[in-house]
Amino acid sequence: MTAQGHVLVCGSKSRNVLQLDGEGKKKLATLATLRNSKYCPHPIFYNKSAACIIVGLANTYSYTILVFKVQ
């Protein structure tokens, strides 16, 4: 959950990262779309002190991360 109370979710099959309202019912934004990527978003973490969202990306052979600065 972000500092604003939003819920962050990632879909390994849809390969996207979404921002939802605090109840998890309404989509507020698509933060990332990885449809043409070999990676699937897996874990997601909001770091309040650094004001960033960290998304882990995985495939069969490797792992990497994406870091998004937020306001």
UniProtKB/TrEMBL annotation:
Domain of life of the source: Eukaryota
Protein name: Uncharacterized protein
